[in-house]
Amino acid sequence: MMQIDESIFESLMNYLDHGCLLLAMDSVLPMCEVADHLQIEFIKKDNIIGMSYYTGDNCWEPCGSFEEDDQIPIAVISEEHVVDVIFDCGRTGLRIDLVSQKYRWLKMFESLHTYYNKLDDFFKPKFDIEGYLRPYIQGWPGEHVDWYNNSFADHRVHAIILKDVCYNITKSLTFCVFDMVKKTTEKSKPFDGMNLTFEDLQLDSHKSNVILLIKSQKKILMFDTRNKAWTLMGQIFSEYKMMTLTSTYIPVQFI
Q: How many whole angstroms separate alpha carbon 191 and alpha carbon 24?
């Protein structure tokens, strides 16, 4: 079992408090300067993905092309030039090696050697994850009470947690804002008339705001958590198919 010192552990807890589950373990290592970048991944061709990061004013800077390689190690703590990109509300993950220009898919569930099992083994000596997450799970907003008495597979939501507020989009495209301290829920239908589908959306966060990627349209919407309003943040002009939009800590010397 690997050990982790107190300063690194506190940084990891800050990530959890901001709704980011280990997007890049290497970003908490003190010898590595990092920056929080909004980035996109797209499919260039079979087994090759591209990555670009946001520089402002709807401009995206290419960060390289990456070839699939299943030999990349999958230990929880990796090298400083290796970044984990977790998306689809935690259901899908990529590990990207910025030096070798390789990537691999992470196994998130369904075996003893999955990403979350490794995290659980890593954190258990230091941290009661179950106790930490319980307040977030209790009172989780949904559309039907029986969701919680049966399999949740047919009742997926896109969700992100920022501080003490959970933002989610249900399959009926209802936008819910659940304050986990006040135990209040606000529901709205901001996407009516936009011809969107649940499967075409991806929810994430960046700099205290909620961001929504419409993959087929390559549009990014932003929900200002202070003003509680949706705006068009920008549109990505690319010939390639969108894979994901994430806010990830990346070592600055590798971009």
A: 32
Phi, psi (deg, nearest 5) at residue 141 = -75, 135
Tens-digit pLDDT profile for residues 185-206 = 999 999 999 999 999 999 988 8
What is d(CA 74, CA 106) in angstroms, rounded to the nearest whole number? Answer: 8
CA distance 3 to 100: 27
Q: How far apart are CA 184 and CA 168, in angstroms?
A: 14
SS3 154: helix
Closest CA to 52 of 35, 64, 44: 64
pLDDT digits (tens, 9 = 90+) for 71-111: 998 877 667 788 888 888 778 889 999 889 999 998 887 67
Give per-residue burial for 18-50: e unless 16+ CB within 10 Å, then b.
Answer: ebbebbbbbbbeeebebeebbbbbbeeeeeebb
DSSP bridge partners of 82: 97
Q: Give me the residue label for tokens 């979350």.
A: 116
Domain boundaries defined on the chain: 6-127+243-254, 142-238
Q: What is the pLDDT of residue 3?
A: 35
